[in-house]
Structures are given as C-alpha cells and as structure tokens.
Design a protein that fits this description.
This protein is an alpha/beta fold. 33% of the residues lie in helices and 20% in strands. The chain is built from five helices and seven strands; from the N terminus they run αβαβαββαβββα. The strands form two sheets. It has a five-stranded parallel β-sheet with strand order 2-1-3-4-5, with helices on both faces. A two-stranded antiparallel ribbon has the order 6-7.
Length: 163
C-alpha cells in the first residue's frame, strides 16, 4: 500500500505542468504495438467501447509523465492484464478497472493494486479455448493472441459501466 501512495505522490508532482483535463476520462489500453496477447477482434471491441466514450491508448506512445497523467485523470480503464497497467498506482481512489484476461494466463496483480488504492475492479475472462491463436506451441502461456466473445464481454461491460 505504501508504494502505491508513494507513486501517486510522485505522479501528482510530475503532472503539475500538464493540463490534466486534456487527457481522457475513459481509456482502453491496446496492445496493438506489442507481439503477444493482442485482441484479434479489437476493431469490433472498439466499435462497442467508442460509443461509450472510450479512447484507445497505446501507453508506449506517451512519455512517462503523460502516462501518469492518463492514469491519474482516468475514471475508467479497460485493458488486457499486463505491463500496460503498471501505472495504475498513479490512479485516484475513484478509479474503476476492467481487466481482460484469457483463462490460460490467470493474474491477480492488478486486482490487488486497484483495491489497494481504493478503486473498483472488474474482470472479463475469455474462456473459449477456440479463441486462442498460439504463436509458439512451446510457450503457450505467453505466446498467443486471442479473440474475445463480444456478446459475453458486453455483459461484464454493462455491469462495469453502472459502477
């Protein structure tokens, strides 16, 4: 918990020179620029999310200070679980996070971070094994991309949007 508070204080100091209001309140973090664990039907997903006001963000395209601003200003973040969510520690206590996770790679780090800062955490788990596209049969735990079942995702998204 103390590390989250320390990073939040650092973020508040680093973002003083930015117009925080130019950063979106609703963010979808994409993995389109990385090699694995990408959502293959992301275009279809964004059709749903953009209607709700979400902006697609590639964290690696922003400076560290800008990433702190993105996370600090956001009210809602949707993302595949991974390193792109590291800066959750800079978020406000009012943050709500919807983690997208394939059932072959469980993870609870981001749930812990979100609850540690006082935020709300939701999770969508893609359970359809037919939706996984493996790149390396020797490292199935990490080297894959996947489709998400949009209709199943919408059920979790509806609950997430009501919070």
């Amino acid at each position: 918990m103390w590390i989250c508070n320390r990073y939040r204080k650092l973020a508040e100091e680093l973002i003083k020179n930015y117009d925080i209001n130019k950063f979106p309140k609703k963010i979808y973090l994409t993995r389109k620029n990385v090699k694995t664990r990408r959502i293959l039907n992301e275009y279809e997903l964004m059709e749903v999310l953009s209607k709700l006001g979400y902006e697609m963000i590639s964290p690696e395209e922003y400076s560290l200070q800008e990433q702190f601003c993105l996370f600090y200003n956001a009210d809602k973040i949707i993302s595949i679980l991974g390193s792109g969510l590291t800066n959750l520690v800079c978020s406000k206590e009012t943050i709500s996070v919807l983690g997208i996770m394939p059932n072959i790679r469980p993870e609870d780090t981001h749930r812990y971070i979100t609850s540690s800062i006082g935020g709300k955490y939701f999770e969508y788990i893609e359970n359809n094994k037919k939706n996984y596209v493996y790149q390396n049969s020797y490292n199935k735990g990490n080297d894959f991309d996947f489709y998400i079942s949009i209709n199943d995702f919408k059920i979790v998204l509806d609950e997430f949007e009501r919070c």
